Amino acid sequence: MPSVPSFPGNDSQIPDVRVGPINLTARVDEALAVQALAFGLSDAEIGVRRQIVLRHLLVPGARAYGALTAEGRLAGFVYGMPNDRSHWWSTVVEPYLRAEGRDGWLDDTFVITELHVHPAFQSHGIGRTLITTITDIARQPRSILSAIDTESPARGLYRSLGYQDLARRVRFPSAGKPYAVMGAQLPLRRR
C-alpha cells in the first residue's frame, strides 16, 4: 500500500496512513461513520446510504480504496465504478449535462461515487491519494463526479486534479443543496 505523500503544510502529527484496496462491503458501517462525520449525515440518511453502497458494490468494475491508520482504522475511503447511463445518478444528471452539450461525458467514464475523509485526517493529502489511486487503474479515459455546488475544499481539490465543472445547480431528489457535476481526463493532474 502506498503511504500518503508528504506535502508542504502537512502536519507531522498525522499518523502513518496507507492507501490500498479494501473490502467496503465488510467495512460499510465504518465507512458510513466516516462519511457521516465528513458530510454531516443523520441516522436515517446513513440507513438509506448503506443500502445504496451495498448495491453499488455489486456493479461490475466497482472498486473501493481505503486509507488505513497503523491501527487499522479507516481514516478515509473512496469508491467508484464505470458509469452506466441506466444508473439512477446518470438519469438525474443527464438532462443537466445535455443542456450544456456535455452528456457525452456519461459514456466511457469512471464515476467517483463517494470520497470522504474523517475530519481529523483532512487537509493532509489523503483525499488526493485516494482519488488518484482509484482513477490510476481505471480503464476509462476520464472520470466524473458530483459535489455540492459551493466553493469548498473538496471542489478545490477536484479542480487541482483537473476536474472542471460540466454542469452546475444540479438538483438531486431529497438533496437540500444543488450539486455541480465535474469531469476530468485521466490520468488526473499531479502537483
SSE class: alpha+beta
Please compute the radius of gyration using only Cα atoms: 16 Å
Tell me the number of helical segments per DSSP (H or I, 4 or more residues long): 5
Poorly predicted spans: 5-12
Q: Could you report the average pLDDT, rounded to the nearest whole number?
A: 92
Please summarize the sheet with the most strands. 7 strands, mixed
- Fraction of residues in helix: 25-40%
Q: If strands are numbered along the chain, what order do they take across the biggest sheet?
A: 1-2-3-4-5-7-6
Question: What general form does the structure show?
Answer: globular
- The termini sit apart by 20 Å
Beta strands, count: 7
Which percent range describes the beta-strand content?
25-35%
Q: What's the helix-strand series? A: EHHEEHEHEHEE
Keyword list:
alpha+beta, about 190 residues, seven-stranded mixed sheet, globular, 5 helices
Sequence-ordered SSE layout with sheet pairings:
Layout: E1 17-21, H1 28-39, H2 43-56, E2 63-69, E3 74-82, H3 88-99, E4 109-117, H4 126-136, E5 142-148, H5 153-160, E6 164-170, E7 179-185
Parallel strand pairs: 4-5
Antiparallel strand pairs: 1-2, 2-3, 3-4, 5-7, 6-7
Describe the structure.
The chain is built from five helices and seven strands, in the order E-H-H-E-E-H-E-H-E-H-E-E. With 191 residues, it is of the alpha+beta class. It has a seven-stranded mixed sheet. A hairpin with an 8-residue loop joins strand 6 and strand 7 (179-185). Helix 1 (28-39) crosses helix 2 (43-56). It is globular, with a radius of gyration of 16 Å. The model is unreliable at 5-12 (pLDDT under 50).
